[in-house]
């Protein structure tokens, strides 16, 4: 069963790592794995992957890429107040449920087109 607070992050959100080897670093969410509650954040938790050669022409190489990080170790950065904040939900007058910053009260949703 998925916990309520962990589903509030979306792709392209700015987040800060709050614990672990990359503590204090800020990045953008590239992908989310909601089943495992993990996120891939730009330039955070980098790993080296050893790639075997496919054929004689293409040599093997070492690729650096992002590994997933548990979303409980991430905190959203509010674009209005530029602080790491907790997220609340509120319902607007037109009935749309949006995320809001608990610190400054700003709405965190981009306009849907």
Give structural notes.
With 113 residues, this protein is mainly β. It has a domain at 13-79: SH3 type barrels. 0% of the residues lie in helices and 41% in strands. It has strands at residues 14-17, 26-33, 38-41, 46-51, 61-66, 69-70, 74-77, 84-85, 87-91, 97-101. A six-stranded antiparallel sheet has the order 6-3-2-1-7-8, with no helix packed on it. The protein has a two-stranded antiparallel sheet with strand order 4-5. Strand 9 (87-91) and strand 10 (97-101) form a beta hairpin. The mean pLDDT is 89.
Quick overview of this protein structure:
The chain is an all-beta fold and 113 residues long. The chain has strands at residues 14-17, 26-33, 38-41, 46-51, 61-66, 69-70, 74-77, 84-85, 87-91, 97-101.
Q: Please give the CATH architecture of the domain at 13-79.
A: Roll
CATH topology of the domain at 13-79: SH3 type barrels
Distance between the termini: 32 Å
Shape category: elongated
Provide the succession of SSEs.
Answer: EEEEEEEEEE
Radius of gyration: 18 Å
Structural class: mainly beta
Query: Strand order across the biggest sheet?
Result: 6-3-2-1-7-8
Name the average pLDDT. Answer: 89
Key terms:
Large ribosomal subunit protein uL24; two-stranded antiparallel sheet; mainly beta; 113 residues; SH3 type barrels; Ribosomal_uL24_KOW; Ribosomal_uL24_C; 0% helix; single chain
List the helices and strands and how they pair.
Layout: E1 14-17, E2 26-33, E3 38-41, E4 46-51, E5 61-66, E6 69-70, E7 74-77, E8 84-85, E9 87-91, E10 97-101
């Amino acid at each position: 069963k998925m916990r309520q607070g962990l589903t509030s992050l979306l792709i392209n959100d700015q987040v800060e790592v709050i614990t672990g080897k990359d503590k204090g670093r800020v990045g953008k969410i590239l992908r989310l794995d909601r089943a495992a509650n993990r996120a891939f954040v730009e330039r955070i938790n980098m790993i080296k992957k050893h790639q075997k050669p496919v054929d004689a022409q293409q040599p093997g190489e070492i690729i650096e890429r992002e590994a997933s990080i548990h979303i409980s170790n991430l905190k959203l950065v509010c674009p209005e107040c530029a602080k790491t904040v907790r997220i609340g939900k509120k319902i607007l007058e037109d009935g749309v449920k949006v995320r809001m910053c608990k610190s400054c009260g700003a709405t965190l949703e981009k306009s849907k087109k």
